């Protein structure tokens, strides 16, 4: 199976999340995933959540990678220097934080984490051939979890 991999170094600043989203949109378009496809919105939201978690919860730089498989699947990985595993949190109804990993769980076909070097990598995969994911806004029931 042929895979194209692209990556972006992300600084430990929350402002880097918007830069990662812009970068991801341009790479998705370059891979043949149109900006108007729901898959593009889903992937950008997944990237936003994973990069936010890395930047906010570790305070360390991170590396965002996207891997495009010849069959249409996309794998997103965010590696950071913290060896602490992701820790799910419970968000209450009006909380503005605490829903990221549950959102990832609801939108990705698969996700997980693994040790990488001195830190870890959190990843998720979306199959392009799978039925379209629901709109990200429709996937936010109360009580979501974030690492």
Provide a concise account of the structure shown.
The protein has 147 residues and is of the alpha+beta class. It contains three helices and seven strands.
Q: In total, how many beta strands?
A: 7
Main β-sheet: number of strands, strand sense, barrel status?
A: 5 strands, antiparallel
Order of helices and strands: EHHEEEHEEE
- Which value, in Å, is the CA radius of gyration? 14 Å
What general outline do the C-alpha atoms trace? globular
Residue fraction in strands:
25-35%
CA-CA gap between termini: 32 Å
Strand order of the largest sheet: 1-2-3-6-5
Weakly predicted, low-confidence segments: 132-147
Work out the helicity level: 25-40%
Helical stretch tally: 3
Q: What structural class is derived from the secondary structure elements?
A: alpha+beta
Average pLDDT: 83
Description:
By secondary structure, this protein is an alpha+beta fold. It contains three helices and seven strands; from the N terminus they run βααβββαβββ. The protein has helices spanning 16-30, 38-58, 100-107; strands spanning 3-10, 62-69, 74-80, 89-90, 110-116, 119-126, 145-146. A five-stranded antiparallel β-sheet has the order 1-2-3-6-5. A two-stranded antiparallel sheet has the order 4-7. Strand 5 and strand 6 form a beta hairpin. Helix 1 runs antiparallel to helix 2 (38-58) and helix 2 runs antiparallel to helix 3 (100-107).
């Amino acid at each position: 199976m042929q895979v194209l991999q692209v990556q972006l170094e992300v600084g430990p600043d929350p402002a880097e999340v918007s830069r990662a989203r812009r970068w991801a949109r341009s790479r998705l378009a370059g891979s043949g995933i149109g900006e108007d496809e729901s898959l593009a919105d889903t992937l950008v939201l997944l990237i936003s959540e994973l990069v936010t978690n890395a930047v906010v919860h570790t305070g360390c730089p991170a590396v965002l990678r996207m891997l495009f498989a010849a069959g249409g699947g996309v794998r997103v990985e965010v590696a950071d220097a913290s060896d602490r595993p992701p820790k799910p949190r419970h968000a209450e109804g009006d909380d503005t934080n605490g829903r990221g990993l549950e959102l990832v769980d609801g939108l990705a076909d698969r996700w997980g984490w693994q040790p990488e070097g001195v830190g870890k990598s959190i990843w998720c995969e979306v199959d392009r051939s799978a039925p379209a994911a629901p709109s990200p806004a429709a996937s936010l029931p109360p009580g979501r979890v974030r690492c």
